[in-house]
Design a protein that fits this description.
heterotrimer; A alpha/beta (389); B alpha+beta (368); C alpha+beta (114); A: 389 residues; alpha/beta; Rossmann fold; five-stranded parallel β-sheet; four-stranded parallel β-sheet; globular; disordered C terminus; C: 114 residues; SH3 type barrels; 5 strands; 40% helix; elongated
């Protein structure tokens, strides 16, 4: 497959691993650190986006990286960061008589306070998986007697598609369609991570498809204010490895810049049309609750007043309940990059993909699911503790 | 003029009686455009349905149908082998017809394959139908016709069955259960616990075709493609291999895909299985569908593919034998068994190694 | 929100609604092209182009030149390492540290000046 297979090439991958192995000690030296084998600290790079977490585990990249490089898995998994209270609201919508809740497949098994959408569907609620928000609108047009609600999830990558569909719904005057918006934005999250005292990161592998929409400029504070490099990366394994090389090179030279590895897809300014659609339909919420990270100001998107009739929360007068995570659940710390999955006491025992306690284990790109499904081999080779700062 | 003798009342009645009896004994003709509850009632309507639609298609011996059960002589079976293989499966697929196959062909081939992977010669099938009230007779004839055709192609006979009709809404159009018996030749013993460290794993062709065809046929994802189900009976291919090579273990790849089968085998045999992801045969368009939706072909169902484990020394021969068969042209060696990490399946990707586990539920399209 | 896949636009299906047929490895789907269109050009100019598809929408045009440049860079990154390693193999241990840094610096300078 063109534009895909070339970026999965084994020979090129091996060279990149060799390059990374050569650069890591140089970066450590530049940062004044001893190697881990002599009691020092590894280079810590966070891959923000869950899609990168998925790639890293799917291709077994972790096992091939040097011990002195640690990849910290960030909260860029829009399903993982959904608080229980919002899942409960989606369930409430699904249970309304005559309603059809259209959702991406990712959200089906996320546990709410008691049940998941899949379980509610088994009980008789009409929950349908869609590939695109456009399919939900088409369904609404073909079934005027049903209330069709689209469960909108995702960062700035997905939000423009929802925006375009809402715009079309208004233009066509579709009376029975609305969106339950759980769209979130990336920069407030990055700031929250950079401000966090528990976390000390050396650089970021930046979300390629979010950047395709927002461009490079929004990341400027990461380098300018916080002095950390960020390299926007594509999602094939060579993309991720190349981005890591670019980050290590910056660190080895004492630099902190925003750079773009994914230039074949990400224009520097992003997508002006997508940004315009977002601005027209959405506005930032005062704040939005993130699982594990708490409330982050301006991080959520809600529909503007002009589109109020398409906003399921207003249309159906939903109220958000603050539901605390289960006691045993450490998803919050894992999402914040403070803990690794195997450090969580219930990982792999009470919490498994079959019996998930938290969203990190349900979403295919959640760090815990990725680790459990693909990567648990690495604990046989390396024992890392989370107590390093 | 002599009085013509009028037929007596008695003889008039007896000729009517004979006429009715003659009509009553003729093979039935089912009435109406669709199946209704009367057809499941056990009475004449059901007799007509069975005669006209089912038996006539399957060609079952009318005399043997007069008993409640099929009777099969043991001696010929014992001349073929020393164990009976016996399996059952129910088929509830929607839609009933999809590119490359239909529920009927599936119901025959699926059960034939479950027998064949034991090394058995598949011989006799039963056919249980649960029909939703209102199903068109035209559809029922098509499905039953397809079963008959598949049975003939596979060299098996459908010798017994059952028919039920349920009220509208109590089943999704048509459910089929087939049970099958076959005979396993003495020298053949592929079994789940049979894999030894060093054994080589092979598949007979491309993965995920059936699941992809069903997804396309359901139409919910609005995808267009030439992908067809790989529904096929594998006993011929299996015979050609088992005739020359000792197959240690063999399973057909159905729901759950290759990952499910390999995990079950790894645990049963208590070996570690290492699979080379780059060696897995996958059609370009099935790959395209997987990339688009976020699926992995290793988790997707087939209906005409198997995985087998043979000793390393036999691997090339097994591969050549499969490739020589029409159902094995894309056969490939995909991995090996080893002692470490017993019970686990790992996948060697183009880059690093990862675990290959089963999915929890069904694959669903994802955005992340 | 990351599952985006490259596909090629093969036909325009509905011009007013900005819908096109996109091919991904032989599977085709109707995709919304409104985010990748150029308003000065007819929609048909998109036919033959590669786009990044996400949830039924083409989000970005794939820049072939940039794709090639990325691949070239990848290949070159690897080559420099082999060269460095070949040189390093002949060095006595004490000088290894300095040599490695020097070679890597030179390589990075070369890349940056591109």
């Amino acid at each position: 497959m063109k534009h895909v297979d070339e970026f999965r090439d084994k020979a090129l991958g091996e060279r990149l691993f060799a390059r990374i192995a050569a650069l890591v000690p140089r970066a450590q030296r530049r940062l004044g650190r001893l190697p881990v084998s002599r009691g020092g600290q590894p280079i810590k790079l966070m891959e923000v986006c869950g899609g990168h977490t998925h790639t890293i585990f799917k291709y077994g990249l972790v096992g091939l990286l040097p011990e002195d490089l640690e990849l910290v898995h960030g909260p860029g998994c829009p399903v993982c960061v959904l608080p229980i209270g919002r899942v409960d609201m989606a369930i409430e919508l699904a249970r309304m008589p005559g309603a059809v809740l259209c959702t991406f497949g990712d959200a089906l098994r996320v546990p709410g306070s008691e049940l998941s959408l899949l379980q509610v569907k088994a009980q008789g609620a009409d929950v349908r998986t869609v590939y695109s928000p456009a399919d939900a609108l088409t369904f609404a047009q073909h079934h005027p007697e049903r209330e069709v609600i689209f469960f909108g999830l995702g960062f700035e990558t997905t939000a423009p598609s929802t925006a375009l569909v809402v715009r079309e719904a208004r233009a066509l005057g579709v009376p029975n369609f609305s969106v339950f918006s759980n769209h979130i934005t990336i920069m407030p999250t990055l700031r929250a991570l950079l401000e966090s005292p528990e976390l000390s990161l050396d650089g970021f592998v930046g979300p390629g498809h979010v950047s395709m929409v927002i461009g490079e400029a929004p990341y400027a504070p990461v380098a300018e204010q916080y002095g950390k490099p960020l390299v926007i990366a594509g999602f094939e394994p060579l993309d991720v490895l190349q981005a890591i090389v670019m980050l290590l090179e910056q660190l080895a030279q004492g630099e902190a810049r925003i750079d773009n590895q994914y230039s074949r897809v990400v224009p520097p300014a992003g997508s002006l049309l997508a940004q315009a659609a977002l601005r027209e339909v959405f506005e930032p919420r005062a704040s939005f609750e993130w699982r594990g990270l708490g409330s982050i100001p301006s991080s959520g998107l809600q529909l503007r007043a002009a589109f109020a009739q398409f906003d399921a929360e207003r249309r159906f007068q939903l109220h958000e309940a603050q539901v605390p995570d289960p006691k045993a659940c450490e998803c919050g710390k894992i999402l914040a990059g403070v803990l690794q999955p195997w450090d969580c006491k219930v990982f792999g025992t009470a919490c498994t993909p079959q019996t998930p306690i938290g969203a990190c284990m349900v979403s295919s790109e959640g760090a815990c699911a990725a680790y459990y499904n693909y990567g648990r081999l690495t604990t046989l080779r390396q024992k890392r503790s989370s107590t390093r700062a | 003029m002599p009085e013509r003798s009028k037929p007596s009342l008695q003889s008039k009645h007896s000729s009517h009686f004979a006429r009715i009896e003659r009509a009553r004994r003729k093979p039935g003709r089912v009435q109406g455009p669709c199946v209704d509850l009367a057809h499941g009632g056990g009475g004449k309507a059901m007799r007509d349905l069975i005669d006209d639609v089912i038996v006539s298609a399957f060609g079952t011996d009318r005399q043997s149908l007069q008993d409640d059960q099929a009777r099969i002589a043991l001696a010929p079976l014992m001349a073929t082998g020393d164990r009976l293989a016996f399996t059952t499966d129910s088929y509830v697929v929607t839609p009933l017809f999809f590119p490359g196959s239909d529920i009927g062909k599936l119901a025959v081939n699926g059960t034939v394959n479950d027998l064949a992977v034991s090394g058995a010669k598949p011989m006799y099938l039963s056919c249980g139908l649960v029909i939703e009230e209102g199903l068109s007779l035209e559809i029922l004839r098509r499905v039953v016709g397809s079963m008959a055709e598949a049975a003939q192609a596979a060299g098996v006979t459908i010798v017994t069955g059952d028919t039920k009709v349920v009220p509208r809404g109590q089943c999704d159009q048509l459910f089929i259960n087939t049970a099958g018996i076959g005979v396993i030749p003495t020298e053949r013993n592929p079994h789940a616990q049979g894999i030894l460290p060093g054994d080589v794993l092979l598949v007979n062709g491309t993965l995920g075709d059936h699941a992809a065809a069903i997804l396309l046929a359901r139409g919910e994802l609005q995808l267009e493609s030439a992908i067809t189900s790989d529904c096929a009976a594998l006993h011929g291919l299996i015979d050609s291999v088992c005739g020359e090579v000792d197959v240690h273990a063999m399973r057909d790849i159905t729901r759950g895909g290759l990952s499910a089968v390999l995990n079950e085998l790894a645990m049963a045999s208590e070996v570690g299985l290492v699979v080379d992801e780059t060696a897995l045969p996958v059609r370009a368009d099935v790959r395209g569908l997987c990339e688009l939706l976020g699926f992995d072909p290793v988790h997707m169902a087939n209906e005409g593919k198997l995985v087998m484990a043979v000793a390393a020394a036999d691997a090339q021969r097994a591969l050549a034998l499969m490739r020589a068969h029409p159902l094995g042209q894309d056969s490939a060696i995909i991995g090996v068994a080893r002692d470490n990490l017993p019970g686990m399946v790992t996948l060697q990707t183009a880059l690093g190694e990862r675990i290959l586990d089963m999915l929890v539920g069904e694959p669903v399209p994802r955005i992340c | 929100m990351c599952l985006g896949i490259p596909g090629q636009v093969v036909a325009i299906v509905d011009e007013p609604k900005l819908l096109g047929l996109v091919d991904v490895g032989g599977v085709r789907r109707v995709i919304n092209l409104s985010l990748v269109r150029d308003e000065q050009q007819p929609l048909a100019t998109l036919v033959g182009l590669w786009v990044l598809i996400h949830v039924g929408f083409a989000m970005s045009r794939i820049d072939e030149a940039e794709a090639q440049r990325t691949l070239t860079l990848l290949a070159e990154l690897g080559e420099l390492t082999e060269q460095e390693l070949a040189e390093l193999a002949d060095q006595p241990r004490a000088e290894l540290h300095h040599e490695a840094e020097h070679a890597a610096d030179a390589a990075s300078d070369q890349e940056r000046s591109r």
